[in-house]
Amino acid sequence: MIIPLSHSESRVRRLPWVTFALMALCLVSFLGLDTSGADSPAPVSLREAGDYWRERPYLDALPEVVTEVSYDVSPNQRGQYVDLLRQNADPPDDFEVVLEEQSELDTLTQRAVEGPPGAGAGDAFRRWGLVPTDPRPWAFVTTIFVHVGWLHLLGNLFMLFLAGPPLEDRWGRPLYAAFFVVGGAAAAAFWMLLSIDVDLPLIGASGAVAALFGAFMVRFWGSTIRLGYFFIGMGRVLRGTFNAPAGLLLAAWVAGEIWKAWLGDRMGSVGGTAYWAHVGGFLFGVVGAAGLRVLRIEERFIDPAIESRTTLGGGDPAIARALAARTDGDIEGALAMLESRLRGAASDPDALIAYWDTAVAAQRPEQGAAAALELVQRRARGGDAAGAADLLAEVRSRTSAGRLETATALRLVPLLASSDRAELATGLLRGAVDPAAPTPTPAQALRLVEQARELDPPSALAAARIALDPAAELPDARRAALTALVVELEKHGVKAPPAIGARAVPPAAETGDEEAPLELETTGHIEIEPTAHGAGSEASLPGELLPDDAPHELERDAAPTAPTLALDPSALPGEAEPAIDVEALTAEVLELGGIELGDLAQSFCATKVSEIAPLGLDAVGLLLDGAGSHLHWERVQAVAAAAVGGQGARPVAIVDLILNWQDAVDGTLEIVRIRSDRAPLRELFPGADSTTDALRALLERALDASGAVPLPDPDAARGRPFRSYPDLATYEREALRVG
């Protein structure tokens, strides 16, 4: 058995809802028709009447019954066969018996042909299917949506799902829907012309699907279809997959259908599969698709209309033309057009992914690696870390592509390490600390130490040395801890990784957009009242808020914690060392540095708080005023939530959006604060049953959209439940580590 599984044109620009609607209509029709007690159409009842008449050919029978009796006889011999039956008939002597037999035959015939109320399948199939001896105008369309049995239905739906979406995507929904219906009607008409004396109904969508096959062959001749095979023979099971050109495969398929149809005619077969309907539908599809191509309907009318309403290709005709050239087999032309497009818009995500996919299709992935890595960085900056990690894994599996910028690596390493792609994460770490690459900032170096301490000790050593640069403003305790870490790693033979080489993708730092400013910015000046702070806080305002076009390059992964050392000697350069006692080594490092374990944790000396009452929220962030100013989600590095006392008669829920959790080198946290008693939270989430539910919805949105660190822990940061603190100073000290 060989069945198609997929094809290379499965990617579409829009949801193919017309295909889904056609599939749903077939399913609803199947479930809605009364076919109780029958798994096949009217021939079941006709066969019963025919068998009864064959044993009593002296009775009067309708032509439908006589035709059914001789269905397995060659057409040119059917008349002789019927005459022979009648000549050899031996009617009973009792006339009453003959009348009873005639009455029984009439009853069977009525059930088969006319269908009394509630007759079931025979009535439904003849009413909605196309019967050549009694063609009804609507039947040319309704026959498409009538099926007999689950196997018949599911087979047609699967083929429709394979062939339909790419044609719907290229032709547009109205033209595609009309082509499907007209193709099904044309297939039915072609079958009826070759079966004019058949009194059986034609049902099923296979003729319309065959029309799509013919169109697919013309429109996507150079594409590839993936097939699966399964055979059992000589005690062995053979199974697997292989690829075949769509044009040749579909041409072979229709040739097989023509052979089966001719063979059926030679054998005098009437019932069963209507192969001529398949042939007629396929021919209609070929002619129709060829006509659309000759008249250039797609290029002149359809593509501009679709591209103007879709995001794929950005509505850019240049990308659409390149993709069309690729579909037509002109890979080199497609690459040239996409290269030209990228020269004008080097960061267009649709042009980047199109160029990478086309380079892979041309079996030259190295040529498209730089474009793919640029897209990885754009996705990471935009918050789609999972998509960036998946694309990076694909690129590295096909090429030896270069590094990413440090900010991107810091976003992706935790995700890669948690998804069993530690080798890829280690490569990013080593690229970030490579001497040939731009030096990470002190804040980035501290995060690299945190991320590399378990994954790759050599990278941790290199990052620690960068962070210890004399120009870096580090608290004394942290500098002492890093110094002790470097000494101990070197003592155990750890060496910094060697230089990898020149970068394949210029870092954002070289173009001036590696690090976003820590201050809040805006195009509109908004007055914000200062809020009270606990001990150790600094009451000051940034004065301005983010504009919609603010840069979004701040890192926002997990907060740095104490660098627990987990060193694998087998992974280190040089001679193998004996197994290291991690607990003893950690204690030795702390003793050497003269510090306490708690000193290694992230801590801050003050806060700078701005209180806001947002007017709305969207995918970009919190709307702050009527002028469209936003606090962008991408600026948020940590989210904290708690119920804090001392703010009034009862505790107040506080949501803190922290903008520099990883970047507060001077020890001051930049915080945007929302209080439950001063912000219209219920207006932000009209469906919320209470202010508490609105708060939780806000926290979920903020954490999901920003990828921020949840404080004081993942559950409390979502208010499930809110953690309580007696006053603001305790909250900032214990939850925000200030003090």
Question: What features would you describe in this structure?
Answer:
The chain contains 27 helices and 12 strands. It has helices spanning 17-32, 43-55, 63-69, 78-87, 95-114, 121-128, 139-142, 150-171, 173-194, 206-219, 246-267, 275-294, 297-307, 317-327, 331-344, 349-361, 365-381, 385-398, 406-418, 422-432, 442-455, 457-467, 476-491, 582-593, 681-684, 691-706, 728-734, and strands at 2-7, 224-233, 236-245, 606-611, 616-617, 621-623, 630-632, 638-644, 652-658, 668-675, 709-711, 724-725. The chain is elongated. The two termini are 72 Å apart. Mean pLDDT is 76; it is low at 36-44, 115-121, 310-315, 502-583 and 588-601.
List the helices and strands and how they pair.
Blueprint: E1 2-7, H1 17-32, H2 43-55, H3 63-69, H4 78-87, H5 95-114, H6 121-128, H7 139-142, H8 150-171, H9 173-194, H10 206-219, E2 224-233, E3 236-245, H11 246-267, H12 275-294, H13 297-307, H14 317-327, H15 331-344, H16 349-361, H17 365-381, H18 385-398, H19 406-418, H20 422-432, H21 442-455, H22 457-467, H23 476-491, H24 582-593, E4 606-611, E5 616-617, E6 621-623, E7 630-632, E8 638-644, E9 652-658, E10 668-675, H25 681-684, H26 691-706, E11 709-711, E12 724-725, H27 728-734
Parallel strand pairs: 4-10, 8-11, 8-12
Antiparallel strand pairs: 1-2, 2-3, 5-6, 6-7, 8-9, 9-10
